[in-house]
Amino acid sequence: MFCGFVKMILKKGTAETMNRITEADKLIEMLETAGHEAYYVGGCVRDFLRAQTGADIDVTTSATPDEMKEVFAGLRYFETGIQHGTLTVLTPDDAHRPIEITTFRTDGAYTDNRHPDTVRFVRNLEEDLARRDFTINAMAMDRKGEAIDIYEGQTDLQAGLIRAVGDPDRRFQEDALRILRALRFAAVLDRGGESFAIEAATEAAMFRNKELLRNISAERIYAELKKLITGPYAGIVIRRYVEIIGVFIPELLPMKGFEQHNPYHKYDVLEHCVRAMEVVEGAGFAEGYQMKLAALLHDVAKPQKFFLDENGVGHMYGHAAAGEEMVRNILNRLKADNETKKRVCMLVKYHDLVFQEDRRLLKKWMNRYTPEMLLEILHIKRADNLATGNMSEELAQKFDRIEAEIRAILEEEQCFSVKDLAVDGSDLMAVAGGLSDQRWQTSGPWIRSLLQALLDDVIEGTLPNEKEALTARAAELLKKAD
Predict the structure, then answer these.
(1) C-alpha distances out from residue 90 to 17, 70, 101, Å
(2) DSSP for 347-390?
(3) Residue 115 sits in which domain range?
(4) Angle between the N-to-C axes of helices 269-279 and 371-386, in degrees from 0 to 180, rounded to the nearest 10
(5) Three-state secondary structure along 271-294?
(6) Which has fewest Cβ within 10 Å: 225, 287, 394, 452?
(7) Do both 154 and 39 map to the same domain?
(8) Domain boundary, last residue among 137, 159, 181
(9) Cα separation, 95 vs 102, whole angstroms
(10) What is the pLDDT along the chain (482 residues), one digit of tens a residue?
(11) Per-residue exposure over 118-144, b if at least 16 CB sit within 10 Å of its own CB, e if not
(12) What is the CATH number of the domain that holds 448?
C-alpha cells in the first residue's frame, strides 16, 4: 500500500523513483516499528516539494549504526560510511535499489575545509538539520508527507532563494565545496522559467571564502562543474560568479571585459564564449557537458593571441591551436577523463574550420575527423557564429544544409573511409602477387598508402567503388611505382 509521501508524487514520479520510495518506506517503517525516528531528508525532500523527482533517496534516523544493523539483520547491507553513521541497505523486495540511511549527527571541526574531523551521533533531528548546507536542503519529511522545516526552507524554495543554514562563513569554511554547490543549484534549479538567486549574505560569504576552493580535490570540483554548465541558467551563473570559478579555471579571468575590436563580434571574449555555451546543441554523440565545455573554452587563448592592426581592428591568429593546449592543461588540472580531454581539445582546435557545401570535401573531412566529430565541430562552429551577435539567416541555413549533407552521406552509406572500400589489404596483396617487384610481395606500409590513394580517387569521383575497377587501378599504380 502506498504511503502519503508516495501518493503526493504519484502522478509526477518515474516508475523507478516510485519503486525506490516504496522500498524506502518499508525501511522507514521497520525503523519506526523498532522505536526509532526516521525521515526522508535533503535533496529528495526539496525536489518532491517542487513536484519533481530525482534518483537519490536519502533517509536519516535516530538509530545508531549498531541499532540499524539490528533492525536490518534480515537484509543485506554495506557499511559504506559507517564512521559517519551511514549504512547502505538493500531493500526487501529489490536488491538493485540500495538506500542510504544515516544516523542523526553533528559534525566536529573541518580542518581540511571539506570533511569533519569527528562526528557525534545524536537523537535529535533538529541538531542534524543544523549541520546542512542550504535551507532548501535542510528539510525532512515523514512517511505521511509532513515536512519538518525549521529554517524556512519552504519559504526560500517558493521564493527561489539559495540561503546558507546559519552563519554562511561557517558553512563554507566547514566545506568549501558548498560554494560550488550553491552555484550549481543556481544554474540547474528552475522556478517557473526563472533561475534561483543566491541570498545576499550567502553570496558575500562565497566571495570572501572562494580561495578555500583550492583545498578541494579536482575530482569533486569537476563533478560539480559538469552539472553546473549543463544547467539552464549556467550562463547567468558564470557571468556573475566568474571570479569564483576563476579560482580553479583562472584562464577565464582575462577573458572578462576583453574587447575583440572586430566588426564580427559584439561582445567581449567571455560574454561571447558564454553565449556560445548557452546556444550550443549536441550532435547526438558527445556528452552534453563536453559540448558545453568546448563552447565555453573555445576562445580561451584570444587574450594571449590578440593584436591590433594599423586600422585598429583586432586579430587573434593561431588562437585555436593555442587554445587546444590551454584547454588540455585545464582538463588535466581538473583530472577529466581521457575521452573528454580528447573530444573537447579537438573541438577547440578545429572550431575555426571553414565549412563549404562541397560533398567531396565533406567526405575527406569525415575520413579525417570521423563523421561524429565533424558534426560536433559543425555544432560548435554554429554556436560560435550565433554568439557573435551578427550571424545572418543565410549562414544559419548554410549550416543546416551542410549538416543535412553529412547525414545524407552516412544514410546513403557512401564511401568516405578506407574501411568502406570494396577492396582490402588481401586484395591488394593478390594484385601485387602478379608483379615482379619484390617490394610488393610482403605486407607493409605500402598497402595503407595504396588504399588511401584508391580512396582519394573514389571520393573525387574519378573511380567507382567497385572491386574490379579498384584492383585495376591498384595494379596501374603499382606498375608506375616499379
Answers:
(1) 15, 15, 11
(2) HHHTTT----S-HHHHHHHHHHH-HHHHHHHHHHHHHHHHTTT-
(3) 4-159
(4) 130
(5) HHHHHHHHHCCCCCCCCHHHHHHH
(6) 394
(7) yes
(8) 159
(9) 19
(10) 335 444 454 444 556 666 778 888 999 999 999 999 999 999 999 988 988 766 578 999 999 999 999 999 989 998 888 888 899 998 766 656 788 999 999 887 777 776 777 788 999 999 999 999 999 999 999 988 899 999 999 999 999 999 999 999 999 999 999 999 999 999 999 998 999 999 999 999 999 999 999 999 999 999 999 999 999 999 999 999 999 999 999 999 999 999 999 888 999 999 999 999 999 988 777 789 999 999 999 999 999 998 888 889 988 899 999 999 999 999 999 999 999 999 999 999 999 999 999 999 999 999 999 999 999 999 999 999 999 999 999 999 999 999 999 999 999 999 999 999 999 988 998 888 766 565 666 778 888 999 999 999 999 999 999 999 999 999 999 888 76
(11) ebebbeebeebbebbbbbbbbbbbbbe
(12) 1.10.246
**Number of domains composing the chain:** 4
Residue 323 is placed in which grid cell?
587554445
User: Which of 227, 248, 269 marks a domain boundary?
Assistant: 248
How far from the centroid of its chain's Cα atoms is residue 191's Cα?
Answer: 22
